[in-house]
Design goal:
two-stranded antiparallel ribbon; Fic-like fold; 8 helices
Amino acid sequence: MKQAFSDPYCYPGTSVLRNLLHITDSELLELAEMRIVGLRSDQLFAQLPGAPHDLSQLLLIHHTLFGKLYPFAGQLRVHTGRMTKVRASGYAVVYGDSAFISEQIDLLFRRLAAENYLVNLSPQTFAERTAHFYGELDAVHPFREGNSRTLRLFFSELARTAGYQLDWGILAAEERLREQLFAARDRAVMHGDSGPLATIFASILSSH
């Protein structure tokens, strides 16, 4: 993640996130994060509450996943302005300004509640509306780190409440499918087009 300023979330002079384990090597921190968050993710999915799927739930998921590693776990991103992520292809994805996160996310959750958390929708309509809200939340990028993993769990629980299941494992099984997911997410963020993401969500959606 490239920043055009001194990132307050990182150790001075580095791109390594401040962490509770005081790891200053980026590769070691990545390994620690994979182990800790992977375990917490498996535990959390079995314990998530149902609706309302609101900001409190989103913050709870993030805190549970990252609370043993990052001091900012469960807190909205602040003082970072816009964030940019450069894909391996060189394509740059620009996320929302931190100054407007609270306002934008409040609007999104009010809209989600107004749609009854996507309950009683056909599979195709559910995939389309889920993709829309996923893309909008991804564009806001509420957290300094861990947005994708938090959103996956949040929308998995949203699907479960609506009588569906999103099988993310299908996408994780092949590099080609992961790249398609990245491209679809980026298109939703940068162009407001959630159509390709809806197609992917429909392919991993099932009833339970």
